[in-house]
Design goal:
The protein is α/β, with parallel strands linked by helices. 44% of the residues are buried. Bound molecules: pyridoxal-5'-phosphate.
């Protein structure tokens, strides 16, 4: 977003005009930002034979999905509904990797019928898959990372170890027994380490875990390092060093190739990295009130449309579009739900008055896709620019 002659512009459009045209609350996505992020990702891993499956849970807007298809990405899906949507958009079933957990096995059977690839994260599904298909359906295995890496805001006491996803290190021998028993062809090994990767060594460390297992499974031809790369949310945040992440993979992969003579494809499942920065949530201020020393701006969105501040204490930059050059004051921004619905506290913004338009930045991932109709409020409009 750029300030040009006192007016905020987004992708060549005047932001106030967009709000007038489409109303508020309104999600905007800038296509060029998504293209830039896809290119950055591809460039960083260009030394490897790699494939990107976009984690569509981050943003499943149809136009965003069509763009990902145009850019030749595959899909990481987590429900049969996501699979159906991806197929409708035109993704080939073989380009979709389904990672279910806790869903009825029937959902896996539907996915198999549609020709979608399966990523199995527990022994129960693995056994059922083997019993039902006697090895006719290949799969990827999701392994619990079992790593303790610094970085994620939630990992201080072992976020990685508490994660409930994947087949645990102590269950690998049982998984190998089931694979042998049912003659299951395991084509890939998968790990999703975190949703906020900041540590440059995390891919290399995760790859080492997967490659150890790949030595025991000669049918494995790909390792999937999941998603989790965090773009900057604040101006002062570091940009993730994708080159360093890529570099951390070189040694374990070279060692594996030298030892086994096998070369594996690398798969990734980024969501947030590709779409977070593309998104802006526009909202109108309808009430200004003062309570004690607090000034509160009441806006026409809330945690039903952007849950991240409530759920994760996430921080999103906010701009006053209507008064870019006003004098700064401290203000709380509260949503319109009948709940404690603070979107931001004690922000320094150019003076906010009733009727002003605010922009909540970096809202392209886990924004609309986590929205609900709580308080019977309709979902907001979305526009791809
Ligand atoms: C298995 C898996 N892959 C990929 C992702 C995408 O993560 P991110 O959007 O942080 O890149 C997630 C997020 O929860 C996930 O669980």
């Amino acid at each position: 977003m750029q300030l040009i002659d006192g007016h905020w512009q987004l992708a060549g459009h005047d932001v106030e005009d967009l709000a007038d045209q489409h109303g508020t609350p309104l999600y905007l996505y800038d296509e060029q930002t998504i293209r830039r992020q896809v290119k950055r990702f591809r460039d960083a891993f260009s030394a490897f034979d790699h494939r990107i499956h976009y984690a569509m849970k981050a943003n499943s807007n149809r136009d965003v999905l069509s763009l990902m298809k145009k850019l030749d990405l595959g899909i990481d899906a987590v429900s049969i509904h996501e699979i159906r949507l991806a197929l409708e958009i035109g993704f080939d079933s073989h380009e979709i990797l389904f990672t279910p957990n806790g869903v009825p096995f029937d959902e896996l059977e539907q996915a198999i019928e549609l020709g979608v690839r399966l990523n199995i994260e527990n022994l129960s599904y693995l056994d059922k898959l083997g019993e039902a298909y006697q090895g006719d359906v290949p799969c990827t295995l999701r392994v619990h990372p079992g790593l303790v890496m610094p970085g994620s805001p939630r990992d201080a006491t072992g976020w990685y170890q508490r994660s409930r996803f994947g087949i645990g290190g102590d269950q690998i021998s049982e998984a190998l027994r089931l694979i042998e028993l049912h003659q299951i062809r395991v084509e890939g090994l998968h790990v999703h380490s975190s949703s906020m990767i900041l540590d440059e060594q995390v891919f290399g460390a995760a790859a080492a875990v997967l490659l150890d297992l790949a030595r025991k499974l000669p049918s494995v031809r790909a390792i999937d390092l999941g998603g989790g790369i965090r773009p900057p949310y604040r101006a002062e945040d570091d940009h993730p060093d994708l080159d360093a992440l890529a570099l951390s993979l070189t040694k374990p992969l070279e060692q594996f190739e030298n030892e086994t003579g096998r070369s594996l494809q690398l798969w990734f499942e980024p969501g947030r990295y590709l779409v977070a920065e593309s998104g802006t949530l526009l909202t109108r201020v309808h009430v200004i009130k003062q309570l004690g020393d607090r000034i509160i701006a009441g806006v026409d969105t809330g945690f039903h449309q952007l849950l991240r501040p409530k759920l994760y204490d996430a921080w999103h930059e906010i701009r006053n579009i209507s008064n870019p050059e006003g004098s700064q004051h401290l203000i709380d921004i509260s949503g319109c739900l009948c709940e404690e619905d603070d979107l931001a506290l004690q922000r320094s913004l150019p003076e906010v008055r009733e009727g002003h338009l605010l922009a909540i930045l970096n809202a392209g991932a886990y924004g609309y896709s986590m929205a609900s109709t709580y308080n019977s409020r309709p979902l907001p409009a979305e526009v791809v620019l």
